[in-house]
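I'd like us to work through together how a protein chain folds, taking it slowly. To get us started, please write out a protein record for me. Label the sequence line and the structure token line clearly, so we can match residues to local backbone shapes. Once you have written the record down, we can walk along the chain together.
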Amino acid sequence: MPDAAGNLYKEDFLDQTVVRFVSYLDPDVVLACAFTGNAYVHRLSNGPHAPDQDDSLFRIGTLQNPNGRPAAPDGFFYLHPMCQDYIPRAEYYDEDPTMMVLACSIVSDDDSVDGSLLSAVDWQAHFYHPEELFTVDMVDGCWFALNNHDRSAVADVNGSGTAEGNTISGWSWNGGDNQRWRAEPVAMPGEVHVD
């Protein structure tokens, strides 16, 4: 169950939950991901980039999707950025295989994960890859490391820089404050969740 402040724990990352990842460095600093782009620092005090576009919201996916994505293994989930437009629940489970749903992954061009890109891609264009799975390892209270599929890299605020637009990439876990996150659930207008 979420804590008194509403922060999620590992068991709370349920299918269709919409979350915002807040950095340990500053409560105004959140993880954001532009449309088919790379992750970066967004400062909540700057507001959303557009009235219907909030690059800092992500929908958790765990269940099998009709478009071909398999269910996530226990303890793992997919991250779908909601940066293009708000994707209603009904459309997310639409049978139309041409529907684009973004998925995040940490991708490296070589054997080193340090500095690898945390980015969003159209998974309908390339189908499913296990690299699109994430998991969290709780570190201290509600704070966790946001790990990639094999725990070789975590979401890392480059150089601990908290300025708008600073890169967030994949890096080996070192326990730094720039690698610690908490997740806040975000209620989306017009959605009714059935347990």
Notes: The chain has one domain: 10-185. The first helix runs from residue 89 to 92. Residues 10-185 form a domain with the Trefoil (Acidic Fibroblast Growth Factor, subunit A) fold (CATH 2.80.10.50). Helices lie at 89-92, 123-126.
